[in-house]
Amino acid sequence: MKEKIMAKATELFLKLGFKSITMDDIAGEMCISKKTIYKYFCNKEVLIEESTEVMHKEVHQSIDAIVQQDFNAIQENFEIRKMFKEMFNAGDTSPMYQLKKHYPEIYNKLVDREVNECNTVFKQNIEKGIREGLYRSDIPQDTYVKFYYTLVFEINGNTISEKEAQQLELEALEYHIRAMATLAGIIELEKQLENHSII
Description:
Residues 1-59 form the HTH tetR-type domain. InterPro entries: Homeodomain-like_sf, HTH-type_Tx_Regulator, HTH_TetR. Keywords: DNA-binding. This is TetR/AcrR family transcriptional regulator. By secondary structure, this protein is mainly α. It has ten helices and no strands. It has helices at residues 2-16, 23-30, 34-40, 44-68, 73-87, 95-102, 104-131, 141-158, 162-180, 183-197. Helix 4 (44-68) runs parallel beside helix 7, helix 5 runs antiparallel to helix 9 (162-180) and helix 8 (141-158) runs antiparallel to helix 9 (162-180). The two termini are 36 Å apart.
């Protein structure tokens, strides 16, 4: 029951916002009493915190699954972006923006966890791109990793519209790859941007 409540809460939070969804809404959607929810979660903040932890795990399992498919480094970045777009396409308002505005402590915890994961994923992607000849070998990898995740978190935490956040993320990804790409990398980037525009 706890997992079912979290799954429904997560769906509603992403669709309608962390602030606007109440425990009554979740209970009504599930046809259970509010008392049942409080049996597992003493308040809404605890439910949000546990839901964001589950989301974090799901996101990184999806990223791992994409990495396992062995795309080239540039396509891998676009596949990860596509996964985020599909996962967070439910609502008008950016979930990260809402979380930062209404539940800053939970947001900061989530960002701390994300930074650790992103460091690993982004660095592995850069190393892969260098091996494949798509990224230049002379780039300061740790600096570029930090630049990119700072951009992405800045966009998500400060852009109200989810659609606008996704467009800015695409532009940040292009900016990130162009800064690192070899000539072969630029050709692959242009190909991915063309494919992406029809998704």
